[in-house]
Design goal:
Shape of chain B: globular
CATH architecture of the largest domain in chain B: 3-Layer(bba) Sandwich
Oligomer: heterotetramer
CATH topology of one domain in chain A: Folate-binding fold
Distance between the termini of chain B: 57 Å
Number of strands of chain B: 18
CATH superfamily of one domain in chain A: Folate-binding superfamily
Distance between the termini of chain A: 26 Å
Radius of gyration of chain B: 21 Å
Helix content of chain B: 25-40%
CATH class of the largest domain in chain B: Alpha Beta
Structural class of chain B: alpha/beta
Chains: A mainly beta, B alpha/beta, C alpha+beta, D alpha+beta
Number of domains of chain B: 2
Number of helices of chain A: 1
GO biological process, one term (chain D): tetrahydrofolate metabolic process
Largest sheet of chain A: 4 strands, antiparallel
Organism (chain D): Hasllibacter halocynthiae
Strand content of chain B: 15-25%
Family (chain D): Belongs to the GcvT family.
CATH architecture of one domain in chain A: 2-Layer Sandwich
CATH topology of the largest domain in chain B: FAD/NAD(P)-binding domain
GO molecular function, one term (chain D): sarcosine oxidase activity
Strand content of chain A: 25-35%
Order of helices and strands of chain A: EEEHEEE
Radius of gyration of chain A: 15 Å
Helix content of chain A: under 10%
Largest sheet of chain B: 8 strands, mixed
Largest interface: B-D, 120 and 125 residues
Strand order of the largest sheet of chain A: 3-4-5-6
Order of helices and strands of chain B: HEHEEHEHEHEEHEEEEHEEEEHEEEHHH
Shape of chain A: globular
Number of strands of chain A: 6
Keywords (chain D): Oxidoreductase
Chain lengths: 109, 417, 179, 997
């Protein structure tokens, strides 16, 4: 059971109050009809799934009911940050969570 | 390869077990192979075995960052069944089931495939409709599956609670008699031993850092903890870690990796004759030959590679077990563990070619990879050897996510409305 | 008794159902908060969990950045609804009568906090008297008010209430057993 | 009478006896005894049989790590459990204890025949045989193996006990109340920390309970302990005994299992048997001590062979002398203290056999003082005695050579192979371990959580060291909590320190391949099994473990892991850390399913949501069906009716006059705001801009993948206000999905959503007489067809209650849905029933609702769709706003496979014979003659008997179905092939005349 800081309530609370809501910063295209099938499929289904820091969405569903974003290390499950929906990912150059080079030094089982 | 048999055991029993040899050598990598398989789980080792056995391709290395069979192969609840809804899935899993039935003899390694029957419980009208659909579809696909009344279900599995007053009363069950369990480690070991005997190198404790591509975009080999190893073809069979490995070849995947937990009880005398699954209540269970109740839990809600998993999920799982089998509350959980499963949007696997020449992938089995092992391995080997899919894995493409031709087993079991 | 807890005095806790108040879910953006406050006759609090109290026993609990739960005596509901209806054209918002959506249970007594911990994973020691939060109790969403050190009040969705009530009774028996 | 109870020894209550039975024989013990200590007091060592060879076994330990002395315990019907550790279960009056895993008696177990042919059962033998003939594994071999395996019998009756859960937030959780834990808790609590201290035993004190002669701060150990506990209580420390920290999860979340009643003669009413605590601690101190290791030698498993520390505990804590003539075998100084304590209590120590050349000087002096023979540089080459050890063979070792053996008579063997820090919980956190060469042990390295380790867990031996370290760690933790703290380490005299060495299996004479030196007692894994596994290529400890089952017994490897690793690493020829340590996995000790399930059993397994009208349905004999978390009235059988009869009657009554239905479970969402229309346009496939106020429309919701997710009728109550309904099961999901889009994709829209599912009770009234029933109760709305046509909505008063009244129909009849505040739902229902009496109003349930809607071809999302069905597939293209530029899922409808020919389309199916009911889920084929596997072109989604049509009918999803209308298809069933004609789905009143009244 994780402890999660809700950026709206400004409290750190048990995971039981929250619902995970998938990868963050996968924005719905402004004009979906203009996209090719490949581009649309990428929006719908392709996920970065990094082994390392992952930008993801949570909803404080049994609380303030807000969706918000978080960075969490998927290897340790430790949260790096949480921030409000619409805010940029802290301290990163890119919005999508492509894995950093270091994360690649891990391979298959 | 020393042939295993009752006589061999007897002979060795008399000589202090001096005659047994190494089941597979712990190989050091060569500079180059025809085929490299990344991931020495049962899927990867099996693919190597079938490459050698059926396609005559023996210049093969199976590379793993840890010990063989140490990933999801050794962490699952060993359920084998093939009563899937869609034709594509039924064919794949039934192909696997056909191979399971002769696997011990084929590998000369007892994988203890036990056809004890898998029973799926229906707890509401929607379940009944859904499972009946499975039963009808399976019957016409030649897949064994039949419908039981609650009383028949109870006769087949006496610990089952079929009280009408239960929070989730049992309204019937679908039973696949041909389904069952197998000994997971033995599958990896059996494939490893048989593959090694045919010339395959098994390279353990050698992390694959990246898939290397040449100027023409085709695969050149893999960078590993033991240096670069050249290969004409590379097949990724790395379960939960597929996204990471594929990313190194610049292929982004429709996958997310989730922690999945399982647990066993202390061993008791035989009390549970079959496998029971209950999707509505979120419980599935069997009893191992050792006597432990083997119980599968669900995935945690968030993406993770930590293999930890939370306590509340285990609590929910055991509450579900006690709901369906109230006599087991005083049983004790002996040990629980976690694995990492990669899950596709339609909950069906991806087995086949990729946009990169010479690169093949076998992934996305979610929580159901073990049962598919021989089928996945066999069709992957075919795909790698011929550079074209076997008819059975042909529908399990990466492209289906673009065209929309999904094999949506999850949606087909959509929750009740 | 295996729990050598010197801070656990003799177990007493009372569970009671309360008569319904008028309750509204108020949703309004930051730009309309002042007008809504004026209409209500109290300052809408902005910190999640804070409760403002106004005349005629009106209270406003901040549940989220643009969400408040307004309560008032049952007979005062109509006036609030009319006042906000008049406000709508000037200040768009959403005021929805939820008086019947939840029912309310009160837990009081020296063991009230202990009883709440059987279903509530939050650290309730940190919920100061006078504050309230939406949280979860044994899987059910509830609004949990701490009215005093040893008094809690829970608004529970109507169809979940018997389940929650049931668990509270089990917990009370447990506390009474002294284990 | 107890033959081995020593007067003046032990901490138990010397008052009245506690009576219990073992295998039917009556025994008496004392309050505070465990089953094992009470039996040992009677000279009984034989308590169990091993897993594989069924060898006779006695207790090795005095705690929860016991591998051998497992028994079945019972306190009456439903209160039976197998595999109880006799060494941990406290006695209670009337406890029934039975030995297990035997055929015949414990002394003469027929399955011990396995032991005679043990060479056959070497490591991994079952992988190598039982393969022929092919069908024999699951028919013959496996059943035999399964019957021989297992330990105790499974419970066979429902458990009447209760289990509880509780959440606890604490500043500092200290796990283990031995010297280090106590000192840590004291130091932190003195500094003002809020502390929770837990220990798995009935009493706190840990090793101090077994070492009364130690002097702390000038006081005898037990006096110091009593004072320390009193001070902890004064400081407000929450102390939980019989409480095991079972698992250490993310961010200092620790699961504790507290045993509450198993030790009580008469548990109080309402008391739970066990309680699972969910603890969230700011800091955690692990003070779990160390576990003594057995030595590995031939015959080390006979009853009477036990750990030296255990013998010391039985003596000092329980006042039981485990034998009169103990022999000690050790590689660590600590066993000498056990020898001294037993000797001082009157035992005649046969000898101390020390594997080392140079034991500590201090213990040698003490041994000499007591006249105990010490054999250094000696090994044990075997033991004798069938049901109890009688002697051991010892031999000198010199330069790796084993010399001539001699036999020493004894009645118990006390062994000590050194100590292993207990780091299970630390490992749960994914904290890393490092191998300490000097100690031959894994010690904690990098911590992944905010936790500290104190005492023996860090490899510190002796009371002085443990207390000092505990105090210091307590201070460190307090400071980490922002408190001022000073360490004050107690002064220890008569400390019991010492050193030792770690050995693999002891040197032996003769053929090592035939020696049976046990490593995992319960699973019967011997040193040679481990060596064989390595020889066969199992080179990592994980492989060795899985191949031999070493460490997989119910002690979870506490006795066997390190010894197994030492032997495996020797066989591999690598240092232990390179061979690896098997992962420790929760729980720390086996924990009941009930403790995990907690309150969630029986009717409290999961909430059953009931509507305000549910009590009426129950009182009127309704059958119920579970629908998501709700229970809904399924049908209302009259005397003698089955479901089919009841449903046929309800259908006929509704179409003939009027039926009443509780629709309260439908999801309801209030959508309000200036952008409400725009939001609805983006969310649903339908156009909403032109929907007039007071009008309602069927809404269709897709997922972004283009498939149908939900549907419902939506009424417009104002320019900016919609009353949205969803399916029963979809309510929460739909609201979540809408909130997601509003909050994250379209934050610019000014619109708010509020769930009103439970605000309103909803009653549907359908049938030609519906208006006549309703009209007299309505105020403020003209119900005439002109003033209130089909698909209208109005706010008015019904039966005196404020209401939202819809004129809509899910049955094809004149229909109304009346929403009133939930508290009035039952009263509304009763008013309508009363008003409807003269029209023979008929309450109906979900099944009749399903039939009536199917007769009209209306879909049920989730039944006629399955998550792969597009609007066009379902024949709902008309529900898509043709001029819309975008809505959720629109883009996906253009994907190649979604516009391909031959998709499955929803059609009607009429069987050739109207008496034949097709199964829902039955498959449709074009060619019934084909061989398996057949090409299936569709499946039946809905199938009912229609009273209106006088026959069965069905809906089906069929490839290219709409083009097949009028043609025949086939439905193969186990009873034969059914021919059916493809039709439209408008089975009843296709023109909708019945709505226009």
């Amino acid at each position: 059971m994780l402890l999660i800081h809700c950026p709206y309530c400004d409290e750190t609370l048990p995971e039981a109050e929250f619902a995970y809501a998938g990868e963050a910063h996968v924005d719905r295209p402004a004009d979906p009809m203009a996209l090719s099938d490949d581009e649309w499929a990428a929006f719908l289904f392709i996920r970065s799934n990094p082994k390392g820091v992952h930008a993801e969405r949570w909803r404080h569903v049994h609380g303030c009911a807000r969706f918000f974003n978080a960075e969490r290390d998927t290897v340790t499950d430790a949260f790096v940050s949480t921030y409000r929906a619409g805010e940029p990912r802290p301290g990163t150059k890119c919005s999508a969570g492509a894995p950093a080079g270091d994360d690649m030094k891990v391979a298959a089982e | 390869m020393t042939r295993f048999s009752g006589m061999a055991v007897l002979k060795n029993a008399l000589n202090g077990h001096k005659g047994w040899r190494e089941q597979w050598p712990d190989s050091e990598p060569k500079k180059e192979y025809d085929v490299i398989i990344v991931g020495a789980g049962a899927h990867g080792l099996g693919a190597a075995y079938y490459l050698a056995q059926e396609h005559g391709i023996t210049d093969v290395a199976v590379i793993d960052k840890g010990w063989l069979g140490g990933g999801n192969t050794g962490r699952n609840t060993t359920i084998i069944r093939s009563n899937y809804l869609y034709d594509e899935s039924a064919r794949m899993y039934d192909h696997a089931l056909d191979l399971w039935e002769g696997l011990s003899q084929e590998l000369n390694y007892n994988v203890m495939f036990s056809r004890r029957g898998v029973m799926m419980l229906a707890h509401n009208v929607h379940d009944v409709q859904s499972f009946q659909r499975h039963v009808h579809s399976n019957r016409l696909n030649g897949v064994d599956n039949r419908w039981l009344t609650p009383e028949e279900a109870k006769r087949f599995c006496p610990p089952l609670n079929i009280s009408r007053d239960a929070r989730y009363p049992v309204m019937g069950a679908a039973l696949q008699m041909r389904a069952g369990t197998a000994r997971h480690d033995a599958v990896a070991w059996g494939y490893a031993r048989a593959a090694a005997a045919r010339g395959v190198d098994i390279i353990q404790n050698c992390p694959v850092l990246a898939v290397r591509r040449g100027p023409d975009g085709a695969v050149e080999g893999v960078d590993t903890g033991k240096g670069f190893i050249r290969a004409k073809k590379v097949a990724i069979s790395a379960a939960g870690h597929t996204s990471v490995v594929m990313q190194s070849a610049d292929v982004r995947m429709p996958l997310e990796s989730y922690p999945l937990q399982a647990l066993v009880s202390e061993p008791v005398k035989p009390c549970f004759p079959c496998v029971v699954m209950s999707n509505a209540v979120h419980a599935y269970m069997s009893q191992s030959d050792k006597g432990e109740l083997v119980i599968g839990s669900g995935t945690d809600q968030y993406v993770s590679y930590s293999q930890r998993g939370g306590l509340p999920l285990i609590e929910h799982t055991l509450a579900a077990i006690c709901e369906v089998f109230p006599i087991f509350t005083r049983m004790r959980m002996l040990r629980k563990w976690g694995g990492i499963v990669d899950v596709t949007p339609d909950r069906s696997a991806i087995v086949g070619k990729t946009p990169v020449k010479g690169l093949y992938v076998n992934c996305g089995w979610g929580t159901g990879g073990f049962k598919a092992t021989p089928g996945a391995a066999h069709t992957l080997a075919h795909t790698v050897a011929r550079d074209e899919p076997h008819p059975i894995n042909a529908p399990f493409t990466l492209e289906r996510f673009t065209t929309g031709r999904l094999i949506d087993e999850a949606a087909a079991a959509a929750v009740a409305h | 008794m295996t729990m050598h807890d010197t801070r656990m005095p003799d177990a007493t806790v009372t569970i009671e159902d309360l008569a319904p108040d008028a309750r509204f879910s108020l949703r309004v953006g930051a730009d309309g908060r002042a007008a809504a406050s004026e209409t209500l006759g109290l300052d809408l609090p902005v910190r999640v969990g804070d409760v403002a109290r106004g005349a005629e026993e009106r209270t406003a609990l901040c549940l989220g950045p643009d969400e408040w739960l307004i309560t008032a005596p049952a007979e005062a509901g109509g006036a609030i609804a009319r006042a906000f209806a008049d406000l709508y054209d000037r200040t768009p918002h959403s005021l929805v009568d939820v008086s019947d959506r939840e029912v309310t249970v009160r837990v009081t007594g020296p063991e009230a906090l202990t009883l709440m911990t059987i279903g509530c994973p939050r650290d309730l020691a940190r919920l100061a008297p006078g504050r309230a939060v939406r949280t979860v109790f044994d899987g059910a969403t509830v609004i949990l008010w701490r009215d005093a050190e040893d008094t809690f009040r829970m608004d529970v969705w109507r169809s979940f209430a018997p389940f929650v009530r049931d668990l509270l009774e089990i917990g009370r028996a447990e506390i009474a057993a002294g284990l | 009478m107890s033959t081995h109870r020593i007067a003046g020894k032990g901490r138990f209550d010397h008052g009245g006896p506690v009576r219990f039975t073992f295998d039917g024989k009556r025994y008496e013990g004392r309050r505070g005894d465990t089953i094992a200590s009470a039996l040992l007091a009677h000279g009984v060592h034989l308590m169990g049989r091993s897993f594989k060879y069924h060898r006779p076994r006695g207790p090795v330990c005095a705690g929860t790590e016991e591998p051998n002395a497992l028994v079945e315990t019972s306190r009456g019907k439903g209160r039976f459990e197998p595999n109880t550790r006799a060494t941990a279960q406290e006695l209670r009056e009337g406890l029934e204890v039975r030995s297990q895993n035997r055929i015949g008696s414990l002394a003469f177990d027929l399955q011990a025949v396995n032991d005679l042919v043990h060479p056959l059962f070497s490591a991994g033998f079952y992988y190598k045989t039982f393969m022929w003939p092919r069908s024999f594994w699951d028919r013959v071999y496996e059943p035999v193996i399964r019957r021989a395996a297992g330990l105790g019998r499974a419970p066979d009756a429902p458990d009447p006990d209760r289990y509880a859960h509780r959440n606890l937030h604490t500043e500092l959780l200290v796990i283990g109340a031995g010297p280090a834990g106590l000192a840590a808790a004291l130091a932190a609590a003195r500094a003002g920390a809020e502390v929770t201290l837990v220990d798995e035993h009935a009493e706190m004190g840990g090793a101090l309970l077994s070492d009364p002669d130690v002097v702390i701060d000038g006081k005898p150990a037990w006096d110091w302990l009593a004072a320390a506990l009193a001070e902890l209580d004064r400081l407000g420390v929450r102390r939980l005994t019989r409480t095991t920290a079972i698992g250490y999860y993310h961010q200092n979340f620790v699961g504790l299992c507290q045993k509450l009643t198993d030790h009580l003669d008469e548990p109080p009413e309402g008391a739970p048997r066990e309680r699972m605590w969910h603890v969230r601690a700011v800091r955690v101190i692990l003070a779990q001590g160390a576990l003594e290791k057995p030595l590995v030698f031939d015959g080390n498993d006979r009853p009477g062979v036990m750990l030296a520390g255990a013998a010391q505990t039985y003596l000092n804590r329980y006042g039981v002398l485990v034998g009169d003539t103990p022999a000690i075998v050790t590689s660590h100084d600590s066993a000498y203290h056990a020898a001294f304590d037993l000797a001082d209590a009157g035992a005649k120590v046969a000898a101390i056999v020390d594997v080392r050349a140079a034991p500590g000087e201090g213990v040698l002096v003490e041994a000499r003082r007591r006249g105990i023979e010490v054999l250094t540089s000696h090994t044990v080459t075997g033991t004798n005695g069938r049901l109890r050890v009688k002697s051991l063979r010892v031999a000198p070792v010199s330069g790796g050579r084993v010399g001539a053996a001699r036999t020493i008579a004894c009645d118990c063997v006390l062994m000590c192979g050194g100590w292993t820090p207990s780091l299970h919980l630390f490992s749960h956190t994914k904290g890393t371990l490092k191998w300490d060469e000097a100690l031959d042990a894994f010690l904690p390295d990098r911590s992944a959580e905010e936790c500290h380790i104190a005492g023996a867990g860090r490899g510190l031996w002796g009371y002085g060291a443990a207390l000092a370290d505990g105090a210091e760690i307590g201070v460190t933790a307090a400071r980490a909590l922002g408190l001022d703290a000073e360490a004050a380490a107690p002064v220890v005299e008569r400390d019991r320190t010492g050193t030792g060495e770690t050995f693999k299996e002891l040197p032996t004479d003769g053929d090592a391949g035939r020696k049976r030196a046990f490593v995992d007692f319960q699973n019967d894994v011997t040193a040679k099994d481990i060596r064989l596994a390595v020889k066969e290529g199992m080179r990592s400890i994980e492989h060795v473990k899985r191949y031999t089952t070493n460490g997989m017994a119910t002690d979870q490897g506490k006795m066997s892991n390190v010894n197994g690793l030492m032997i495996a690493s020797d066989a591999v020829g690598k240092a232990p850390p390179q061979v690896g340590l098997t992962t420790f996995r929760p729980p720390y000790t086996p924990t009941t399913f009930g403790a995990f399930a907690g309150y969630h059993r029986g009717r409290h397994f999961e909430v059953t949501r009931r509507t305000p009208i549910d009590p009426w349905a129950e009182a009127h004999g309704a059958a119920f069906e579970p629908v998501s978390l709700w229970r809904r009235a399924w049908y209302f059988p009259k005397a003698g009716e089955d479901m089919d009869a009841a449903v046929a009657r309800e259908c006929a009554a509704t179409r003939g006059s009027v039926g009443i239905f509780d629709a309260s479970t439908l999801g309801k969402i209030e959508v309000q705001g200036p952008d409400a229309v725009e939001f609805m346009n983006r969310m649903y496939t339908n156009p909403w801009t032109k929907l007039g106020i007071g009008r309602a429309r069927y809404g269709l919701l897709l997922g972004e993948d283009g498939y149908i997710r939900d549907d419902g009728v939506i009424g417009r109550l104002g320019e900016d206000l919609f009353h949205v309904t969803t399916t029963t099961g979809g309510a929460a999901r739909v609201l979540n999905m809408m909130e997601d889009y509003i909050q994250t994709e379209w934050p610019d829209l000014k619109v708010w959503l509020t769930s009103t599912t439970e605000q309103w009770a909803t009653v549907a009234l359908n049938g030609p007489n519906a208006r006549r029933v309703l009209e007299p109760l309505v105020e403020g709305q003209d119900l005439s067809a002109e003033a209130f046509p089909h698909m209208s909505v109005a706010e008015c008063t019904v039966a005196g209650f404020p209401a939202r009244l819809f004129r809509i129909s899910f049955t094809g009849e004149l229909g109304f849905e009346i929403n009133v505040p939930a508290r009035h739902g039952l009263a509304l229902w009763e008013a309508l029933m009363k008003e409807g009496e003269r029209y023979d109003i008929c309450p109906y349930g979900t099944e009749t609702m399903h039939v009536l809607r199917a007769e009209k071809g209306f879909i049920i999302v989730g039944q006629d769709t399955d998550g792969t069905v597009t609007p066009d597939d379902a024949g709902l293209s008309w529900a898509i706003g043709k001029k819309k530029a975008d809505f959720v899922g629109m883009r996906s409808l253009r994907r190649p496979d979604l516009v391909a020919e031959g998709r499955k389309q929803l059609v009607g199916l009429m069987t050739e014979d109207g008496d034949v009911k097709l199964d829902e889920g039955a498959q449709v084929v074009a060619d019934p003659e084909q061989a398996l596997p057949m090409k299936m072109i569709g499946h039946v989604t809905s199938s009912y008997y229609s009273a209106a049509l006088g026959r069965h009918f069905a809906m089906a999803l069929v490839e290219g179905g709409r083009d097949l209308e009028g043609r025949d298809v086939f439905v193969p069933t186990p009873e034969g092939i059914r021919r059916a004609t493809v039709t439209t789905t408008a089975f009843y009143d296709p023109a909708g005349e019945r709505l226009k009244v």
